[in-house]
Design a protein that fits this description.
two-stranded parallel sheet; 51% helix; 9 helices; seven-stranded parallel β-sheet; Rossmann fold; alpha/beta; single chain
């Protein structure tokens, strides 16, 4: 049994590595920070291959797939990503384009490449990590919310294609709310509501993945928010989200 995890050097990705290693899975861990991966590897109980790649490059995504495609991989978790907050006209265009490359193009590329392989084998799990941000537009984090909306929409579409084909391949989408990771520091935001631990989110997500849950939302608060948002007028939601994001920015 083997799993590949991107963005594995910290946060949810690292916690998923621990969870899957404890379940007996050998691992392929991918992230930019080699020293972090090496440190994580020492704490795991199964065989671990580390690949220090920047997946913001589509070329590196293809290179990663070519490097591991002959291995018997059972699970792919597309977790790599980052956020950025601020008024759309004031945030860095370069950082936003980097975000689109990592949050969208890398997920799209790896999902397509591994899904072709898994369909031929008629087995395998692909878990795409989005966010509760995927469910609505996000003023003051417009690009980040949009990237996660893409991941969510792509995953839903692929689920239906696979269902119609009666394929045994699983695709699902993890949509957590605030999680206690490095995300806040990178995005330069501060959540006012309590955050879940990355360990809890990872454990919950892996358990629900094996239960073949399509949309995985850890925590009862975010579940309630998800269902309530379905009945809220769009303009009211936008006003509420703007106020929430403004409070994060201080």
């Amino acid at each position: 049994m083997k799993a590949l995890i991107t963005g594995a050097s910290s946060g949810i990705g690292a916690a998923m590595a621990v969870e899957l290693s404890n379940r007996g899975y050998d691992l392929i861990l991918v992230a930019r920070r080699k020293t972090r991966l090496e440190s994580l590897k020492k704490s795991l109980h199964t065989n671990v291959q580390i690949i220090p790649f920047d997946l913001g490059s589509t070329f590196n995504c293809a290179k990663l797939f070519d490097q591991v495609k002959t291995q018997d991989i059972d699970i792919v978790i597309n977790n790599a990503g980052f956020g950025l907050a601020g008024d759309f006209t004031e945030t860095s265009l370069d950082k936003e384009l980097d975000m689109i490359d990592l949050n969208v193009k890398a997920v799209h590329t790896l999902t397509k490449l591994f899904l072709k392989k898994f369909k031929e084998e008629n087995k395998g799990y692909i878990l795409n990590v989005a966010s509760s941000a995927a469910f609505q537009p996000g003023p003051l984090m417009a690009t980040y919310y949009s990237t996660k909306g893409y991941v969510y929409s792509l995953t839903m579409a692929l689920y239906e294609e696979l269902r119609k084909e009666k394929s045994k391949v699983y695709v699902g989408c993890l949509c957590p709310g605030p999680v206690d990771t490095e995300f806040n520091k990178v995005a330069k935001v501060e959540f006012k509501m309590s955050s879940l631990s990355s360990e809890y989110v990872a454990s919950y997500a892996i358990r629900k993945m094996f239960q073949r849950k399509l949309v995985i939302i850890p925590g009862w608060k975010m579940k309630c928010g998800y269902y309530l948002s379905k009945f809220s007028p769009l303009k009211l939601k936008l006003k509420f989200i703007y106020r929430v994001q403004k409070s994060k920015l201080g």
